[in-house]
Amino acid sequence: MFKKLLLCAIALVGFAATAQVKVSGVVLQAEDDEPVIGATVTVKGSSIATATDLDGKFTLTAPSSKSKLVVTYVGMNPHEFNATTKPVTIKLESSATQLSEVVVTGMQKVDKRLFTGATTSISAEKARLDGVADISRSLEGKAAGVSVQNVSGTFGTAPKIRVRGATSIYGASKPLWVVDGVILEDAVEISADDLSSGDAETLIASAIAGLNSDDIESFQILKDGSATSIYGARAMAGVIVVTTKQGKAGKTSINYTGEFSYRLKPSYRDFNICNSQEQMGIYKEMEQKGWLEFASLANSSSSGVYGTMYKLIDSYQNGQFGLANTTQAKNAYLRQAEFRNTDWFDLLFNDNITQNHSVSIAGGTDKGRFYTSLSIMNDEGWYKQSDVQRYTFNANASYDLSKTLRVKLLTSDSFRKQSAPGTLSQDVDVVSGEVKRGFDINPYSYALNTSRVTDPTATLTRN
Prior knowledge:
The protein is an alpha+beta fold. The chain has helices spanning 2-17, 96-99, 124-127, 228-231, 276-288, 294-297, 304-314, 327-338, 344-348, 443-449; strands spanning 21-29, 40-43, 49-51, 57-62, 68-73, 76-82, 88-92, 102-104, 109-111, 119-123, 147-149, 160-162, 176-179, 182-184, 216-222, 239-244, 250-263, 352-364, 368-379, 387-400, 406-419, 426-428, 435-437. The longest helix is centred in the first third of the chain and has 16 residues, at 2-17.
């Protein structure tokens, strides 16, 4: 009799351990407590599942009290809880990946599914170019339909950017730059033709040359005409929206970035250019054919080494100055030019190191966030008489005064000191379209087009 009672007790205990549990509750959105319709509630590890109704409510029978239930919904993080007989309230939070799919127009953030315009988003990490301090050059080749032409290698000069092609017959087709909702105006207005003129004004023609690339979070390029509804007629050529980095709630972080770029002088070994011996051989052949005569070159404005020699002969008087009109004297002068082999790259360029240092601090709480950065760029110049020093300071802070009111403070400052040779003036022949410059210095072009037989210390009529 005792054994039968014991077996019954064991059977009752086993039955109690495997008793089913009826679970009920409601699923809401964490942001606004609205019911989530059609959320799936599943018993983990089994095929038992149900869905929430129009009020977000559900009822489900779990195998035991030890069962775990999982609530899932598209665009929201899954939630797991233990089975219980008491009614439960589940609040689902939106997933971070869903929130990141937005379009930043500069004025507002729009869900990508609701935005009807043409846009391209580029993260700063993908667009960053090591050794390039100008952020406008980093957009080249990163977005379909966006054309970036660098008409000058000098820092600060505005590149020729086209987002929607040529939108004006007058050539004013540059896009509008918007940084954190603030429209950046160019210091000077220059046309597309002026970009390649070499004038000093082009050095201050870029509106974003004072931005530090380490402060950029992302680029948003608005390509179609819908941008005009936000910014007006100035946006008819497209809009490039720049979003800078901001602080996040949590631990305060300090970041430092140091960048060093080393540039070597150009070398004539990389170009198919005659040295002084080869060039003098060509000149000697031209002289033998009668193309370098004294009468045609003595008073010529552009005549090279032979013209200079004839001028020296013409100024020779009583053994003073100039050059004697003898075969020995002329051969000696031409032999000096033959072995001169002037290296214009060595005379006009430097081996230099460009430094770019940036330090930032960011942090915040649930109520407020902040971001502050300071950067220093120093470029001693690749060619003589050129150097750049740039200092930038960027700071922003945002404070949530309530659930519907946020105050945001922004400041961006930059200082640049730069020396660069260029063009002081230019004239355009309206008939032929020829561009003439009264004073033009381009060391790279000069080194490629100036004869290597020329004495760099001599005073010549031309070149």
